[in-house]
Amino acid sequence: MLGFVRNILRGGFVAASTDDPACEALEAATPKSDTLPQELVVAIESALVTWRHFEGNEDTDEASYSSAVVRVIGLGGLWRFDGIAEAAERVQKHYPELTPQACRRAAKMIAAEIGKRNLEAHRQSSRRGRWSATDWGQGSW
């Protein structure tokens, strides 16, 4: 129902003006939801997470650092994950019908997905062949 109302307010089904008082009253009367939409949950679970290295500037004593770059479908293009507050603002911008608590929960899910992908990357890199005294005849060294 909320998606239908949102489409009407955005002019999806009828030619509605956003500065129309009737549309504003309808939008204000629409209750904000505390549950995350299924499409947002699926988008977060299938997010693209990559890591980028950012070079510092010696003149300004800015240090080099690595950061997660995230792309969640429906939340805009790629962006550097700077924390839960910034991600919650992004969710609120693209899903105005959600409450601030729901936006923070979605941001925490994004952070958890980044952590999960980071753990998977470290596990894959640690699976390299290790030499052991018992497998010296196998040609592993």
What does this structure look like?
With 141 residues, this protein is an alpha+beta fold. It has a domain of 93 residues. It has five helices and three strands, in the order H-H-H-E-E-E-H-H. A three-stranded antiparallel beta sheet has the order 1-2-3, covered by helices on one side. A hairpin with a 7-residue loop joins strand 2 and strand 3. Helix 3 packs parallel to helix 5 and helix 4 crosses helix 5. The protein is flat. It starts with a helix and ends in a 16-residue tail after the last helix.
What's this model, at a glance?
The chain has 141 residues and is of the alpha+beta class.
Q: Which structural class should the secondary elements be placed in? A: alpha+beta
Q: What's the main sheet like?
A: 3 strands, antiparallel
Total helices: the number is: 5
User: In terms of per-residue confidence, which ranges show pLDDT below 50 for 5 or more consecutive residues?
Assistant: 11-17
Helix content: 40-55%
Total number of strands? 3
Which whole number gives the mean pLDDT?
77
Shape: flat
